[in-house]
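Table S2 (continued). Query chain:
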Amino acid sequence: MGLRSIALIASIALLSACSPDTVVHIVKPYRIDVRQGNYVTQEMLSQLSPGMTQEQVRFIMGSPLLVDVFHADRWDYYYRFTEGYKPPQERRITLFFKDGKLERLEGDITAATGEHIEVPVTPRVIDVTGPAASTSAPAAAASGPVAAASTPVAQSAPAAESAPASGR
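Corresponding output:
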């Protein structure tokens, strides 16, 4: 009986030392990385030049996060990245338009001076002929992708109705 009481007193003493404050400082819960807003790179900004239309800017930068109703010629791109317990990183880019053309930009990241960075474009050929083309792939490949896309696909004849007519 004496050993049990000593073990009980020792376990109560040990558990009372594990208050939630000390446990939280030792073992931290996992926090996911959170990305919010428009991710803007230096390459995207270097492609911008004054005089570009709003459609060209939207193609390069994507849709703005904020479009103010009262300032239609101002687009705001905001990006926030929180990595675990580290302090968040924030980037703000504001584009100003005049008469539908890019006039200037302001923000944390500025466009690089000098030459534009060319983004390589790799053309892709998409076969839209369907599963019938897989059986005649060597013939389609020999005549080229344009000829393969323009060849008609055989249509099956409409099936005759096989349901018996009701006599009622």
